[in-house]
Write a structure and sequence with these properties.
The chain is of the alpha+beta class and 132 residues long. Helices cover 52% and strands 12% of the residues. The chain has seven helices and five strands. The longest helix has 20 residues.
Length: 132
Amino acid sequence: MILSLKIVVNRDIAKVLGLNETIVLQQINYWLEVNTRKNHNFRDGKYWTYNTIEEWKEEFPFWSKETVKRIFKKLREMKLLLIGNYNTMKMDRTLWYTINYEELKKLLPHAKEQNYLTNTRDFYKEFYQKYK
């Protein structure tokens, strides 16, 4: 097998959210963790990540731009993604994203059963460690 960047998907989460949505949410969570470690992009009490749709398309080269848009729209409709605009230039319409961990907990019954989380920032990491 050729060594390259890999995507590992948690089956339990994918059964609830859908495969594509899980892949995107995991990638956003990855960038939120990077920003947390670097103490970067902290606004209104949350860490955020941002990209244009074209940049997200580069993260997911196996999907079309329209597919990427649909996935992000669905995650927003599910209330799993919070949207912000913290751009310094008013004309910059790049969206900023963070995960709504409270909504995520509601959708994942394993989290409730295991009494996960008093700290929502650690939820995703704990859930993945338990079920990877």
